[in-house]
Amino acid sequence: MEVLTIMLWFLILLVPTIYLYFKKKYSYWKDRGVPYIEPKIPYGSLQTSDNMRQTINTFYKSKSDFPFVGIYILITPTVIATDQEFIKDVLIRDFNYFTDHGLYTNERDDPLSAHLFNLDGQKWRNLRAKLSPTFTSGRMKFMFPTVLAVAERFDKALAELLETQITHEMKDLLARFTTDVIGTCAFGIECNSLKDPNSEFRKYGRKHIEEPSHGAFVNYLMNVFPRFCKMLRIARIRGDVTKFFMGIVRETVAYREKHHIRRNDFMDLLIQLKNNASIDGEDSKIIGKLTFEELAAQAFVFYVGGFETSSSTLTFTLYEMAVNQDIQDKCRAEINRVLEKYNGKLTYEAMTEMHYVEQIVLETLRKYPILPVNFRKCVKDYQVRGTNVIIEKGTAIQIPVYAIHHDPEIYPDPEKFDPDRFSPENVKQRHSVAFLSFGDGPRNCIGLRFGKMQSRIALIMLLKNYRINLSSKSPVPLVFNPKSFILAPEGGMYLDIEKI
Q: Virtual CA dihedral for 438, 444, 449, 452, nearest 10 degrees?
């Protein structure tokens, strides 16, 4: 009987203790005079069934004159940036306070996770300095013929498919194209995904995106309790994916070094950094050699970032071309006009003259930002400009890219697809951080030039030779996959393709 009494009293005391603990935690923003979203025990401002993009969008709409809104992810205070000047402070002006993404890495048990996007602090700075010369406009010009050759194979493969049917699921088809591009440029390997949808490269790339090792809760624990998760030797990337990519990189590096093979691709530049601590022709200081594991991790993130982001962008672009035939016709007219000037040959110079093509790609990224939220972590106490509020070291900052891109105060009639938003005169009229699909500041997307080049080449090739139309299976209206970390259409993207 005494045991039951003790247990009863324990429960009677435990419940209010837990309640008071949560109430104390949930007073964080109120105590600091920050506008906040009312939390609910134990989930905080989020609910377990919430779609993150839609939820962050709702938080953004509650903005006031204060530069941000406070929320709680479980019990963790988090900042939702709502003011463009504050966002510019975070990304650019006061970048040294917000250098980190705050994402989990585990170099010992998960070597591919230690790539440029995930790394923080001095490791990130060192690696960024080493890799920046890889993505200059000059390097893009060198890689242009390689990407163009894959695009021509894509054109040929599509023409063959159209001999039997006109309706195709474009998301997978475009992912096979971008897989072949990035496989060639990052690994120097002919992946043949266009011919074989189940090629090894496509198989493991799809696995990494569609079948992650862990769900949202474990990912949250990895980011909030990284030391504990490292003690448990938790890996973010699937073991079979790691085994495949580490093996491919090891074989590729060994083969090239043994046979003294040089190519104008990412792998060649990474091998130079592994062996020489600098890149040929770059007047830069000695920045230290890459280890093999660092080389493999960068090749991996180039691969995943290169094929998935560009294929998703192209998928949404073609959808908008099918919906907006007048824009498609205008774009095709520009392509034909510029190509005529270059005797029908697509060159790097011809591509850069196609300004409307670039505006279409940028408007697609405005309406469909592949990463709907940008992350930063405060690395030292920071006083918010114009206030007495201190953002404490370790606080996560979320920049709601999708919500900003769909704010009618910034982009009138935001659901309308209008490439003229990105004409030079219209760009000048907007705030410098009104467009954030590539981030901004010192930690912007290092591969933005390559991504834009790959997307433009594919779009030019497709619109030059084909008309894109909606099919009976096209998703109207468009619905996003709620389970996908990046923005992706639910159930694929079926379109009719007509040979011109």
A: -10
